[in-house]
Amino acid sequence: MRQDGRTADMGRPVTIERDYLIHPEGSVLISVGNTKVICTATIEERVPPFLRGSGQGWVTAEYSMLPRATGQRTQRESSRGKVGGRTMEIQRLIGRAMRAVVDLEALGERTVWIDCDVIQADGGTRTASITGAFVAMSIAVSKLTSKKELKKFPIRDYLAAISVGKTEEGVLILDLDYPEDSAAAVDMNVVMTGAGEFVELQGTGEEATFTRQEMNDLVELAESGIQRLIGIQREVLADVGTQIGRKEGE
Amino acid sequence: MRQDGRTADMGRPVTIERDYLIHPEGSVLISVGNTKVICTATIEERVPPFLRGSGQGWVTAEYSMLPRATGQRTQRESSRGKVGGRTMEIQRLIGRAMRAVVDLEALGERTVWIDCDVIQADGGTRTASITGAFVAMSIAVSKLTSKKELKKFPIRDYLAAISVGKTEEGVLILDLDYPEDSAAAVDMNVVMTGAGEFVELQGTGEEATFTRQEMNDLVELAESGIQRLIGIQREVLADVGTQIGRKEGE
Amino acid sequence: MRQDGRTADMGRPVTIERDYLIHPEGSVLISVGNTKVICTATIEERVPPFLRGSGQGWVTAEYSMLPRATGQRTQRESSRGKVGGRTMEIQRLIGRAMRAVVDLEALGERTVWIDCDVIQADGGTRTASITGAFVAMSIAVSKLTSKKELKKFPIRDYLAAISVGKTEEGVLILDLDYPEDSAAAVDMNVVMTGAGEFVELQGTGEEATFTRQEMNDLVELAESGIQRLIGIQREVLADVGTQIGRKEGE
Amino acid sequence: MRQDGRTADMGRPVTIERDYLIHPEGSVLISVGNTKVICTATIEERVPPFLRGSGQGWVTAEYSMLPRATGQRTQRESSRGKVGGRTMEIQRLIGRAMRAVVDLEALGERTVWIDCDVIQADGGTRTASITGAFVAMSIAVSKLTSKKELKKFPIRDYLAAISVGKTEEGVLILDLDYPEDSAAAVDMNVVMTGAGEFVELQGTGEEATFTRQEMNDLVELAESGIQRLIGIQREVLADVGTQIGRKEGE
Amino acid sequence: MRQDGRTADMGRPVTIERDYLIHPEGSVLISVGNTKVICTATIEERVPPFLRGSGQGWVTAEYSMLPRATGQRTQRESSRGKVGGRTMEIQRLIGRAMRAVVDLEALGERTVWIDCDVIQADGGTRTASITGAFVAMSIAVSKLTSKKELKKFPIRDYLAAISVGKTEEGVLILDLDYPEDSAAAVDMNVVMTGAGEFVELQGTGEEATFTRQEMNDLVELAESGIQRLIGIQREVLADVGTQIGRKEGE
Amino acid sequence: MRQDGRTADMGRPVTIERDYLIHPEGSVLISVGNTKVICTATIEERVPPFLRGSGQGWVTAEYSMLPRATGQRTQRESSRGKVGGRTMEIQRLIGRAMRAVVDLEALGERTVWIDCDVIQADGGTRTASITGAFVAMSIAVSKLTSKKELKKFPIRDYLAAISVGKTEEGVLILDLDYPEDSAAAVDMNVVMTGAGEFVELQGTGEEATFTRQEMNDLVELAESGIQRLIGIQREVLADVGTQIGRKEGE
């Protein structure tokens, strides 16, 4: 039994509040336990220099935390004058994950900007960001369809992410909150599609190691957690979701 | 009659949601019409170098906007690697305003960090920040009292802020939303105390000027708006508020 | 009676040395008591991106202090790698003030760069900068007229600035020097036009507040000080000044 | 058959030149095919602030590429004024990987600085850096032992890293060179210990996904490649290596 | 005959206005033709970390140009967020030159900060800075003597600098103004002491070269120019100068 | 006799390994005693803005040291976020030296980027960089000739550099290693062409001065050292070198 009463293979309560903000083309407030992230998607009608004239689109992401998303106040990266390594790592991960399910040619020469701003952190902010960002992106992209600006819906499949880990006692657990994450010997973030394929798998021993068997068990645990998240995404995206993964002519 | 149905002297609907986040010592989500700001207050048990050993405390503030708080996406200041002039101006204003009602000696050698993060912007983000930050600060400081760490409650009076302006047609209006603010000929931000005294008065002609009579009428309009805001603060701070401005021995 | 023998409503000696430097299109050395600022105006034949193709011009300002303009050496902002909040606030104020009296359409698609470099500081550097910059700008713009590059003289009115304040003893005083400014309870900067209208009014209680009556008295004091400064500007700009505010056809 | 004649499960030629530089406590030049990295280890007799007084040591890493390590000249990060996201990700990975096999308490309050400078890049620079850095670190740490500054040898096990990937045609390959890496659908970096346990596993679909079966096959491929690398490390570290992983009393 | 009527071996008119500013311990305005530099010297009662506890002092310099010191407006280094290569080169040169005539032990553990701010540039700003900075430093240091804070006057000799060059036509000229400097094939800056010894010699072919004979002739030309400058320094420093180079017991 | 057995007028062993890297158009590893520098030359088919459309080319240089090129680890300039003054001074020197022997018109509108990365430092890194960079540049430029992209070979003469100095005992020595350089009273860097003309002469008294006679003797010493270096360059550049300095029609 865990601190908050969950069993090892249980995820935290999840809510995804759609259209949380009035300005962005797509936005959600995702809550995973006490972790809360505002995810927005912005459509920009141009692409970075390396894609100009290619006919291809791009998806990129930025991630940040409010100073008091955390127990101790964290200094703003704007005050420090630079974006830290952890932030860079996370925002690169979010962008890469989104691109794995987007048909960039079908998107056309436009950029989807994903912004994930953690307003309250309690572990799993990067995976909550991915799960929420996918919904925000889907809403934003669906507005392009309704404006007939796309020939084909460019999102190929659902996408969600969760963390799994090994405690110091060797127990494998799903969806770690902050105290669990801080104490974990092994920490793994998994990003998967609706079809159950991997997009990203990042397992890290924190001054510790893990065996092949543990790797397999962790991955299985993550899989079950992600299926539940995708179920929630399907509900939230009821209207939009039917277009995801639709083949041409369907 | 204004775009949203208000008369010239009417403020927008205001709500202040207390204890919005779990981690900070004080936090609110303030909404003024569509403008929404998360204000938090953090108590740090030390002061900047210039006050060390002085027995005095300090109050300082930081302000930021999420990239999609605005209609067009705004680039993050952390990505640009520096804090812009507008942000600096606003955060200096917030800090100065708070300090005007705080007895820094009574606070003792500790710093109150105010963080105002605009999650949705529709005009008046700096004045909403001040009005919300005052509540967050009061909650945070009251926790020090309940821990018996203060001899005297260091907040001397209520404090709130509002904007007033002159339209291009010369009409004086209260609490400008974003379209009104963009079009205004004159824009004035007023910060006042519960006792009705000024803390800050910033009137600016935007490629325009204003007369002494207009100055007086604008100030009067602001005064009425601020009294209403302080009424709302009093309700939200019901338990804590009785300590504000209390003299020693009371 | 004040430290330097002035009465409360007396300004400091002011001199404006025209054409102080050989390179800029307009330049002055303004001295207000011991405060000395080199103000230059540069005409650039292009505008910032947001105005390209608009037919409109722009006026922008930068402000800096030599390290030993002050009693203690101040670290250079170039060495610190960033421009501080106070500098940003002042340079934004100077630019905004100039734009209030410039007809940007009449200026055409060009930028006036104002540079104010304080070589000696003794209080009131921002107001001295505005008063001096107006003269430098007028000279620079007049050279465009003489080259027949303008249809209409784009400066609509004179413009000057002064500070007023309330001492800790509650006396209202004009044109504060540095020791007075450091000790003042309330500090107000006022920018006005030749026609006696306000362009900018920034009153700030320094851990203090002020009443409506004090506001009115301070503004009145400022008004008299500014009229004197504009008188001096008129003399210095003898030849150029006749074009200021001239209507078409005059 | 691959471009350079290797079969899918074959690694590139590897050499590790020990004591490549005269100044550092430990240094190697590692070549993996055409990828060449100078890895150095520096012992500093102090730790970062968060560890002061803890009795624990620390291992941290920095990574960089010469501008012409690559086919096209890459701009220096010092000229751009900031360290990019890719660099940060890699140097965090290297540091974390080293720490997984170091007993930080046995190291005592000192820091091992790892520097990996790529002088020629042809794919796999981060894995070559880890493999080389481990050797440099072992040499540097062994000098502490010979000076009797350590009670116990703080390196618990060998450590090496390799990349594996899936080509666009779906073939799984070991130790990708740059053209293979650029074209790969899936790219996985694996860091393992001499005991065959995982320290880090980072699998990424580049606008593509991978199945659980593929994950398992890739991991197996990596395992064989890493065993070979550790064999080479053992030879290079002949004298020093006997201390690695030695239990107290051995 | 040169543009401004000088012969090849003639320097420009030089004036050094002492005590130009009220705040610094030492200050001058030096004019060399149209080149005008404000030089100040600040005494700080501490030294950089590498000298703490050594009993030795330090002299360091910073150099800057006002944006309109030049014909075209130069962007401020504070706005660009970094100090350029040319500035760094010049301020390192100024500091090194001063240190060559200062007995750092006699100075004691204090730092002399030299600030050279070019308000008008017409060639030779670095050499004018050195010549002026020497005077400012001497005044500042003499105040320490009068306060009895020094056992021995720490300035060993006079110091001044001048530029010489070779025109495209092969003529060797003294004290180049800006048009001459821009067109010169060879440019040499020479810093010498009152005793006629070299402190710094920097000869540079600008896409050109120079022979040994030319080197000797240039150096001789510089020598005569520097003697004249030191003569002017002696006059300006009448009272202070008697201490320069005085042996103990004198 | 010096520490390493050399007489005062003896240079250190020099080797220049050509085509050290596979990617750059020109590259060498130059060793001068224990000083080792990787020099590369990159041809970019465009020029900086100030030369666009001029028909002229450009040569520019960057210089850096690996953190452990030195006895103590040096912090990376990328981590500090800015390039230091010493680095700037050196890279400006290298660029300027190269340009002195390049006919920029014959080069055409392209840029030669020189990168000098010191992998091991033992004094004389800037002069070794120049000597090595000249070879790398010659190789890179000769590839343009063989591609018939040039009408005329744009390198006019050989170019090499060496340091000379005066010890504290007053002995003049050639090619200082790091301990000699640190202790020297006077330090002079000399850059010369194959024809024996000066390109750059930088003599600096380190808290010391030098006489005219010493200047002459130092220069003579440098001359002999440079002739030897150019002899080595001629051998290394056997095939390419015949084009250097060839007149049209030859």
UniProtKB/TrEMBL annotation, chains A, B, C, D, E, F:
<feature type="domain" description="Exoribonuclease phosphorolytic">
    <location>
        <begin position="11"/>
        <end position="140"/>
    </location>
</feature>
<dbReference type="GO" id="GO:0008033">
    <property type="term" value="P:tRNA processing"/>
</dbReference>
<feature type="domain" description="Exoribonuclease phosphorolytic">
    <location>
        <begin position="157"/>
        <end position="224"/>
    </location>
</feature>
<keyword id="KW-0548">Nucleotidyltransferase</keyword>
<dbReference type="GO" id="GO:0000175">
    <property type="term" value="F:3'-5'-RNA exonuclease activity"/>
</dbReference>
<dbReference type="InterPro" id="IPR015847">
    <property type="entry name" value="ExoRNase_PH_dom2"/>
</dbReference>
<dbReference type="GO" id="GO:0016075">
    <property type="term" value="P:rRNA catabolic process"/>
</dbReference>
<dbReference type="InterPro" id="IPR050080">
    <property type="entry name" value="RNase_PH"/>
</dbReference>
<feature type="binding site">
    <location>
        <position position="86"/>
    </location>
    <ligand>
        <name>phosphate</name>
    </ligand>
</feature>
<dbReference type="InterPro" id="IPR020568">
    <property type="entry name" value="Ribosomal_Su5_D2-typ_SF"/>
</dbReference>
<comment type="similarity">
    <text>Belongs to the RNase PH family.</text>
</comment>
<feature type="binding site">
    <location>
        <begin position="124"/>
        <end position="126"/>
    </location>
    <ligand>
        <name>phosphate</name>
    </ligand>
</feature>
<dbReference type="Pfam" id="PF01138">
    <property type="entry name" value="RNase_PH"/>
</dbReference>
<comment type="function">
    <text>Phosphorolytic 3'-5' exoribonuclease that plays an important role in tRNA 3'-end maturation. Removes nucleotide residues following the 3'-CCA terminus of tRNAs; can also add nucleotides to the ends of RNA molecules by using nucleoside diphosphates as substrates, but this may not be physiologically important. Probably plays a role in initiation of 16S rRNA degradation (leading to ribosome degradation) during starvation.</text>
</comment>
<dbReference type="GO" id="GO:0000049">
    <property type="term" value="F:tRNA binding"/>
</dbReference>
<dbReference type="InterPro" id="IPR027408">
    <property type="entry name" value="PNPase/RNase_PH_dom_sf"/>
</dbReference>
<dbReference type="GO" id="GO:0031125">
    <property type="term" value="P:rRNA 3'-end processing"/>
</dbReference>
<keyword id="KW-0820">tRNA-binding</keyword>
<dbReference type="InterPro" id="IPR036345">
    <property type="entry name" value="ExoRNase_PH_dom2_sf"/>
</dbReference>
<keyword id="KW-0698">rRNA processing</keyword>
<dbReference type="GO" id="GO:0009022">
    <property type="term" value="F:tRNA nucleotidyltransferase activity"/>
</dbReference>
<dbReference type="Pfam" id="PF03725">
    <property type="entry name" value="RNase_PH_C"/>
</dbReference>
<comment type="subunit">
    <text>Homohexameric ring arranged as a trimer of dimers.</text>
</comment>
<protein>
    <recommendedName>
        <fullName>Ribonuclease PH</fullName>
        <ecNumber>2.7.7.56</ecNumber>
    </recommendedName>
</protein>
<dbReference type="InterPro" id="IPR018336">
    <property type="entry name" value="RNase_PH_CS"/>
</dbReference>
<keyword id="KW-0808">Transferase</keyword>
<keyword id="KW-0694">RNA-binding</keyword>
<dbReference type="InterPro" id="IPR002381">
    <property type="entry name" value="RNase_PH_bac-type"/>
</dbReference>
<dbReference type="InterPro" id="IPR001247">
    <property type="entry name" value="ExoRNase_PH_dom1"/>
</dbReference>
<keyword id="KW-0819">tRNA processing</keyword>
